[in-house]
Amino acid sequence: MAGSALRRLMAEYKQLTLNPPEGIIAGPINEENFFEWEALITGPEGTCFEGGVFPAKLIFPPDYPLSPPKMQFTCEMFHPNIYADGRVCISILHAPGDDPMGYESSAERWSPVQSVEKILLSVVSMLAEPNDESGANVDAAKMWRDDREEFEKIAQKLVRKTLGIPP
Amino acid sequence: MPMEFLGRLPIPNLRVYVTISVVILSFSIYYATQIIKDPAWKTNHTHVDVGLHSGGDIDPTDPRSLGTHLKELLECMVMEPVCVWTLVNTGYCMLILLGKTIQKLVFGELRASENYHLKDKFWNFLFYKFIFVFGVLNVQYMDEIVLWCVWFLALGFLSLLSQLCKDRFEYLSFSPTTPGWSHARLLVLLTAILVLSSFMLLFCIAAAFFFISFNTFAFMAAECILLGVRTIHVMLRYLIHLYDTRGAGTSTQRSWDKRGPLTYYTDLISELIVLAVDFFHHVHMLLWSNIFLSMASLVICMQLRYLFYEIQRRITKHRNYLAVLNHMEQNYPMASQDELAENSDNCAICWEKMESARKLPCTHLFHNSCLQSWLEQDTSCPTCRLGLSMQANHRENTLEIPPEPQTPTRRNSNHFFLFLDASRYVSWLPSFSVEVSHNRLRGNISTFTHTNSQMDAMARQVQLLFPHYPRSIILEDLRMTRSVEWTIENILDGVLTIPHHLIEEPQEESVPQMETIVTNIMPNSSIQNSSDPRFDIPIADSGEEPSSLGGRFSKSSAERELILQRRKEHMRLTARRRYLEKHRKSEIDSTNSQITNTENIENTIS
Ligand SMILES: [Zn+2]
Ligand SMILES: [Zn+2]
């Protein structure tokens, strides 16, 4: 199966290079292994993550468009939908079969029609609007609900960190 | 315990192991020469006696020819149990050295997972062969053990190499840029393994005629067949993969439709053969082993159970495959040429052109093989999520099913997917979703705590510097930039000098345009008066770099990597500069605000 996955990834890479969505760069870390990508996501403007450039790793399965990739931020993140180890919890990344949270309808899950670009764009909107129903990071979800100011302070600290600016 | 010789020495400490082996070997040779010198040893062995008699009654210490001396030495070593094991150990050591050489020649540095697999397979092999030799065959005599050890050394060596080839092939298939010669080397090695394993099979057959029983022959042959089939499987998959990726430039479509079933049946047949042979091999072992309730038979039973489930699983999977195939042929007709021409999109699963396609009830088209592999794991249309009932055999039935998955989406409060869902129905082309997200984000921005009074305050600030600009234009620009300094810069850079142009254009269109202008300006506007060393940032290579880098997709992988690296760097630097600039300005503004005593501006800016 790796042959068709490879061609599809190559096509997606080409499209993301020729036609990059604003604030997003993605591509293989090393072309020796086309199934491991790094993506840079700019924090959406007007939100508490504004200005930051957040690196994330994408790992694709050998049967790629049939199964979703795994995504993990490689920088420190504090967000209701991101686990402490950086794994991203959004329904577009869940295979149609599994339903860890038990609330998603299958329409939002992975399908081969989705793409890296769509994943990254939904991650951008996840950064803009956390979904505090899914508790990937309970502390962050609680803070997002109850103490927005503190949440924004932490987010700004993370933004400075990703830019390499001392606090 | 003889196995300790082999088992105690793991693969990595090669240098230590080789040294130890050489030392042991030289000791045993010394030992053997000592024994040969002892005349008592010769009397025990008729062979040597004959040799002595034919040589005449010469002084035994006399130096004879080197050949006979070596022969004697070898014979002695084979006879002596201690020396035999040193010889086996030496053979093992030499095999490892040979393996190391092959690894250096063909594989280069082993990856972590390959190393892990190799070790895993090694210990597994050792464990099962130990059980086989002592539990199943119940070998009693030393020379038999030695023979089996030699046999398994060769077999294990080839199996490990074949495993390594398989791992490496899978890894190479992850990359589009592997040079041809590394494929060639791997294929040569695979062929060599295949040839050697068929030689071993021939050897078994020959041995069966002369000196081994049928049972022993069956045991040995099964192992050879397993090795051979596994190797052939890897080779076939390799060739299909190479044909698929290398021939892509010339004959993609021709190979495409046949490739799916071809790969599938290659996998199915070789996996089933391997499982079946392994299964009967184990049944044979179980029947052969003398005591049914021994530890060995327990282990074999567990292995049998596992193999049985594997066979069952494979057959279930194949049934599913056939069912899906049958269902597709009965319910989804091939799209006509007109429909193909009408639908200019590529296949949404593999993003490749469609020369032929199957049509779902929702009129979405996909490649035959793409749809097949998707329906094996899910029963809905990939594009619109229309549920496809796999039980229904009539097309009318599937059509009657309401497109229910669409409704929960709209109902759902999980709103960060809304724009993606919307785009999904219209088109999966990215340009669309980009635009949607863009507008959406802008919507966010305008609602984000910028009340009118704050905007007015910001506009007043700008107007202090540029009194001749109408406030409405400044306000409009502020709504987009949301910062006093960006608007000031827009004015300074001449973006706002043609106000009628901006007013005439509809707002939706002017927004993306303006933002791109702003981003293009930012790299150029270097910081002139920063005194704080924290704010001294290197200016990214040049302002026009992103456009020249973004518009190209190089054919060479090295160049692609370089461009990607530079784009990333550029993005980081730009973001950093923008951030610092903003905060520097906000500091200035905060001092300004103290002077002008306007309301709390820095909050709105930062
Ligand atoms: Zn396709
Ligand atoms: Zn459909």
From TrEMBL, chain A:
Q: Does the keyword Iron apply?
A: no
Quaternary organization: Interacts with AUP1 (via C-terminus); the interaction recruits UBE2G2 to lipid droplets. Interacts with ubiquitin ligases AMFR/gp78 and RNF139/TRC8; recruitment to lipid droplets by AUP1 facilitates interaction of UBE2G2 with AMFR and RNF139, leading to sterol-induced ubiquitination of 3-hydroxy-3-methylglutaryl coenzyme A reductase and its subsequent proteasomal degradation.
So what family is this one in?
Belongs to the ubiquitin-conjugating enzyme family.
Could you tell me the EC number(s) of this protein?
A: 2.3.2.23
Write down the superkingdom of origin: Eukaryota
Function noted in UniProt: Accepts ubiquitin from the E1 complex and catalyzes its covalent attachment to other proteins. In vitro catalyzes 'Lys-48'-linked polyubiquitination. Involved in endoplasmic reticulum-associated degradation (ERAD). Required for sterol-induced ubiquitination of 3-hydroxy-3-methylglutaryl coenzyme A reductase and its subsequent proteasomal degradation.
PANTHER family the UniProt entry points to = UBIQUITIN-CONJUGATING ENZYME E2
Among the record's GO biological process terms, what is one?
A: ERAD pathway
Organism listed in the record: Mycetomoellerius zeteki
- Annotated catalytic residues: C89 (glycyl thioester intermediate)
Q: Which Pfam families match?
A: UQ_con
- Stated name of the protein: Ubiquitin-conjugating enzyme E2 G2
Keyword annotations of the record: ATP-binding, Nucleotide-binding, Transferase, Ubl conjugation pathway
Question: How would you classify this enzyme at the top EC level?
Answer: transferase
Molecular function as annotated in GO: ATP binding; ubiquitin conjugating enzyme activity
Q: Which reaction does it catalyse?
A: S-ubiquitinyl-[E1 ubiquitin-activating enzyme]-L-cysteine + [E2 ubiquitin-conjugating enzyme]-L-cysteine = [E1 ubiquitin-activating enzyme]-L-cysteine + S-ubiquitinyl-[E2 ubiquitin-conjugating enzyme]-L-cysteine
Question: Residues in domain UBC core?
Answer: 4-164
Carries keyword Nucleotide-binding? yes
From TrEMBL, chain B:
Give the residue ranges for region: Disordered.
Answer: 583-606
Give the location in the cell: Membrane
The metabolic or biological pathway listed in the UniProt record of this protein is: Protein modification; protein ubiquitination
Q: Which GO terms describe its biological process?
A: endoplasmic reticulum unfolded protein response; protein K48-linked ubiquitination; ubiquitin-dependent protein catabolic process
Q: What is its main location?
A: membrane
Per its record, what are the GO molecular function terms? ubiquitin binding; ubiquitin protein ligase activity; zinc ion binding
Q: Which UniProt keywords apply?
A: Membrane, Metal-binding, Transferase, Transmembrane, Transmembrane helix, Zinc, Zinc-finger
What's the name of the protein? E3 ubiquitin-protein ligase AMFR
Q: Where is the CUE domain?
A: 454-496
Q: One of this protein's Pfam families, by short name?
A: TPR_SYVN1_N
- Where is there biased composition of kind Polar residues? 589-606
- The segment(s) forming the RING-type domain are 347-385
InterPro entries (UniProt xref): CUE, TPR_SYVN1_N, Znf_RING, Znf_RING/FYVE/PHD
Q: What is the protein's membrane topology class?
A: Multi-pass membrane protein
Q: Name one GO cellular component term.
A: cytosol
**Coiled-coil region list:** none
Q: PROSITE patterns given for it?
A: CUE, ZF_RING_2
Instruction: Report the transmembrane regions from the record.
Output: 12-32, 84-102, 122-139, 145-165, 186-212, 218-240, 261-280, 286-308
